[in-house]
Amino acid sequence: MKKTLRITGKILVWILGIIAGLVIISALNHNISKSMEKNKYKIGQTVHVDGKNMHAYVTASPIADFMPLAERLSEDYKVVILESFGYGFSDTTKKERSNETIVNEIRSALKELEITGPYILMPHSISGVYSMYYEKNYPDEVEAIIGIDESVPNQTKTDKNDNMSPNLTMLNTLGILRNLSYLSPSADDGMNKENYYSAEQVKLKKMATIWNSLNISVINEMNTVNANTKELYDVKYPNDLPVLAFLSKDTEDTDQDWLSLHEELISNDKIQKVETLSGGHYLHWTNADKIAEMTKEFISTHLN
User: Fold this and answer.
1) Domain count, the chain
2) d(CA 87, CA 92)
3) Which structural domain range is residue 176 located in?
4) 267 in helix, strand or coil?
């Protein structure tokens, strides 16, 4: 019996050793590959914000996710795309992801790029909350907001955001997410449904997802959503601010309050509009032509 236990114990030690070795190899492969990929595919430029590197691109040829839309808009406007900390090629940060912090990082990056306002903000998703904070606190720097299925403050009044465990960062650090991506290399998230993106752009987007999913900055940002939205509960757009909100039909179908949550922000329906477009939350993946056309028309109508 003792001999059997000793043999079993040795087998378990060997198994645990093999698992530990594989985890170390996975982590090394992920972090080395991430560094090499970022160096190989990086476009745009780095700006220094709060002691860290933030990635920025000024059109004409912006980073992958918003490439088609930004290219269309850059025919008439200067388009600036900032990748917040924890996204794309930018560094991660453990600094609090509050409205104030994120907006000040945006302002610092624009200052370093020597691009002066006032700006037309074009937020997608949770960036809608940051845009409202930006306009509320620095109104002279914002001349319009054009949102893409953007989040709004009051949505968490009844639908709180669930907190994520910081321990989930281990799935990123150890390369587990990269390994999982190898198991489904052809998975289609609908990004190229309308053939707006080149194969290289789709590849870059997938790599960026592997680099950044569940990093500490993203998790901290998600865990701050409730506080960030609460800070702006019941705030409306100023009645002299032009606003155009593009909402996803798919989001409206799954959230019966989505349209009304956006309509209640309006204080002047002559210059503030809500438009519903067919498609999912990432409307810019499938509606770049329509969004660009309607954006240009809105700007020419409501801004000097």
Assistant:
1) 1
2) 8
3) 2-302
4) coil
Cβ proximity of 288 and 72 under 8 Å: yes
CA dihedral 213, 261, 133, 100 (to 10 degrees): -40
Sign, Cα dihedral of 229, 110, 201, 61 = positive
What is d(CA 99, CA 46) in angstroms, rounded to the nearest whole number? 22
Query: Distance between CA 16 and CA 24 in Å, rounded?
Result: 12
Tokens of 279: 């498609």
Number of continuous H segments (helices) and E segments (strands) in the chain: 13, 7
Q: Which helix (H) or strand (E) holds 111?
A: helix 99-112
pLDDT in tens, 232-260: 999 999 999 999 999 999 999 999 999 99
Single-letter amino acid, residue 276: T
Q: Report the CATH number at residue 227.
A: 3.40.50.1820
Task: List Cα–Cα distances, 274 to 68, 90, 100, 236, in angstroms.
Answer: 22, 32, 27, 14
The reply to whether omega before 118 is within 30° of 0 (cis) is yes
Packing angle between helix 176-183 and helix 2-41, nearest 10 degrees?
A: 80
pLDDT digits (tens, 9 = 90+) for 118-174: 999 999 999 999 999 999 999 999 999 999 999 999 999 988 888 888 888 887 877
The CA-to-CA distance between both ends of the chain, in Å, stands at: 88
